[in-house]
Amino acid sequence: MFLMQKATDVTADQLTRAYAFPPSDRPVIRANMIASIDGAATADGKSGALGGPDDHRIFHLQRSLADVIVVGAQTAVNEGYHPPTVATDDTAARSARGQSRVPLLVLVSRSLTIPAEYTTLTDPAVVVATCTNAPAAARTRLVDAGATLLDCGDDDVDPRRLLDQLAERGLTRILCEGGPRFLAAVAAADLLDELALTVSPILTGGAAPRISHGAEPDGPNRMRLRHQLANDDGFQFQLWERAVPRPPASTD
To answer: Which of 62, 75, 102, 231 has the fewest C-beta atoms under 10 angstroms from its C-beta?
Structure first.
């Protein structure tokens, strides 16, 4: 065991290097989540209520580094997600990395119960990942509203098929922002490579979900801490990575 010492201030360049996606010949999936000190993923029903200025800074930094942002559609609607944007100062760096001007936003929905008036759906940088057996009437309603649908499974959204479709588009830096059920599905499929976790200095109580809630993996996904930062407000910013590399994809 050892004591965590308070370090010196972290510069913007150091923070960018700390959260850069690792070089890889395959897609890398990182989840970015926040939790209270008693394990709640939300306060008053929203994850944003747990955050603070430095958490928002790291949130937007990771988005600027990603090729694609994946989030459950219900989470996106509840949290008021808008089409992705990137600060002007980050566009040159994205271009140098061979990335598009803004990351693609993928909304995951098996049931397609997304309000047609949710205008984020119609942005060209937004697609909805769903399944072929989603209700036909809901498919028609969203397509008529201007949404772009991407089938990634038959009866449910298969995270592995979604990953394959993103890889075919050259999108390999994948940032998953939940919600808890979709993150659980990614972990259960043994696809999670990294977890960026903000620990908020709030005790919520109540019955809020954990950051991962739902499907269970065959065994625990052991991870190791790559770095931990903190600020004077009591927030901790952790980046975890797989302790054992993800096995190669099947060639069958």
So the answer is: 231
Please check whether residue 181 is in contact with residue 216, taking contact to mean a CB–CB distance below 8 angstroms.
no
CA separation, residue 11 to residues 63, 83, 90, 96, 140 (Å): 18, 28, 16, 21, 49
Tokens 């459950």 sit on residue: 72
CA 123 to chain centre: 19
From residue 70, give the alpha-carbon distance in Å to each of 79, 146, 218: 14, 19, 23
Instruction: Give the angle 78-88-150 at the CA atoms, nearest 5°.
Output: 45
Grouped pLDDT means (10 residues each) for the chain, 252 residues? 65 94 92 96 90 95 97 94 92 94 97 95 96 97 96 96 95 94 94 97 92 84 92 95 76 47
**String of DSSP letters for 188-216:** HTT---EEEEEEES----TT---SS-S--
Domains of the chain: which residue ranges? Answer: 26-242
Q: How many alpha carbons fall within 13 Å on the CB side of residue 126? A: 21
CATH topology of domain 26-242: Dihydrofolate Reductase, subunit A (3.40.430)
